[in-house]
What we know:
By secondary structure, this protein is an alpha+beta fold. 55% of the residues lie in helices and 18% in strands. A hairpin with a 3-residue loop joins strand 11 and strand 12 (460-468). The chain is rod-shaped, with a radius of gyration of 53 Å. The two termini are 71 Å apart. Residues 421-434 have low confidence and may be disordered.
Amino acid sequence: xxxxxxxxQLASHVSVIIIAFLILSLLFSQFVERFVYENKIxxxxxxxxxxxxxxxxxRGGGPQQVVLQEYGRVLAGRDIQYSLxxxxxxxxxxxxxxxxxxxxxxxxxxxxKSGQTVIVKQDFKRFDEGVTFALLPYFHNGQFIGGILLxxxxxxxxxxxxxxxxxxxxxVLIALGVALLLSWILSKFHVKRIKRxxxxxxxxxxxxxxxxIPSSNFDEIGELAGDFNKMVERxxxxxxxxxxxxxxxxxFMADVSHELRTPLTTISGxxxxxxxxxxxxxxxxxxxxxxxxxxxxxxxxxxxxxxxxKIRSNQVTLIKQEIQLIEVLEIIKxxxxxxxxxxxxxxxxxxxxxxxxYADYDRLTQILINIAKNSIQFTENGKIILRGRAGSNETxxxxxxxxxxxxxxxLEKIWGRFYKAMLSRTTNPYGEFGLGLSIVKQLVTMHHGKxxxxxxxxxxxxxxxxFPLKES
Length: 472
C-alpha cells in the first residue's frame, strides 16, 4: 500500500504531539490531584494539632467546651467536621451531629493508640459522601486518652481537579489544532522540496543535464539538493566528454578510412598496372618503389594504433638503462634534419656531455621523435631546440619551437586519444590518427616521469619532460 510522504509526516508529527500531550496531561493531572489532597490533609492535620494543643492548655480548669465550640464554628465555615473521642472510642464532642462521624477499623485504632496519625485521601464507603479525613491521637503526660477525627468532603476538591482536567483537555485540543496546522505547512514545504528533487531526477534520467535546483545548508534536504547539483554538473561534464570522445572516434574512423584508402588504392593500381602491362617496362621499377613506399606507410599507420593499445594496456616492457642524453638528441637531430629543412627550420641541440637519463632507449627515441615531428610540422622558418639538463634527482628534457603555438583552451585536450588541435594537423606524418601525443604521455608515465606543455599563440610551444634518476 502506497502512503504519500505528506501523510506520513503529518501522522508522525501529530502522533508525537498527541502522545507527548497525553503524557504531560496525565502527569500534570496526577500532580494537581496529589497537590490538592496533600493540601487538604495538611489543613486537617494542622487544625487537629491546634485543637489538641488548645485542649491540653485548657485542662488546667479552662472551658474545654468553649474551645471545641469555637473550633466547630470556624471549621464549619470551611466545610470541615470533627469529633473528639476518648480511649474507649466514645464520642466526647462532635460537630453537626451527636453520633460518630465514622466507625474506626481495628487497624486504624491500633495505629492511633501507638501514636501514629491515620490519613485517608478518599473514602466513599463509611460516609454519606466521599471525604478526606485525618485521625490524630490524643496523649496526656505520655498516656493515650483518645483522639480527634477531622473530615472534609472531597466534592470541592474533585470539582477543582475536574475543572483543571477540563482546562487541560481544551488546551490539548487547541494545541492539537495548532500542531496539525503547523505540521501541514511544514510537511507541505518539505514535500515540495523533495518533489522538486524528484522532478529534477526525472529530467536528468530523460537526458537533461542543465537542470539545477535551489540548495542551502539549512538542513539535510538542502545539502541533498547541493549534492544533486554537483552530481548533475559532473554528469554533464562526463556526457560532454563522452560526446567529444564519440566525435573524435568518428573522426578517427574517417581518418582511418582516408589514410588507409590512399596507400591501398596506390598499391592496388600499381599491381593491376603491372599485371595488365599497362605500366611500361621502364616505369615498372618506379611503380614498385611507389608500392613499397605506400606499403611501409600502411604498416606504420597500423602499427601506430596497435602500439598505442599495447602501451595503454601495459603490455610494453621497458628495458631501462643509463643513456648519455647528448647521444640520443644528436641522433634525433640527424633523423629529422631533412624533414626540418623542408620547412626551412633549424634543429639545435643544447645539452652538456655529462647529462645522463635513465630510460628505455627505443621508447625514449619514440617520445622525442614524436614531439619533435609535431614541432617541425607547425613551425616554418624557425627553430626547434632540443634541450637537456640535470635536475634534482631527475633529468629534464625540453623541446621548444618558434611555431604557431596552441590555443590555451586546447592545451589540456592535446593528450586525448584521437585529438587533433587543428584540421591542418591531419597531415601529421607520425600521428596520422591523432595518437602521437597520447602515446607520448603514456610512455612518459610508464617511466614514472611527468610531461608538461606551455604554449603561446603565434610564439611557439615548449614541452618539458622530467625523468627520475636511477635509484641507488
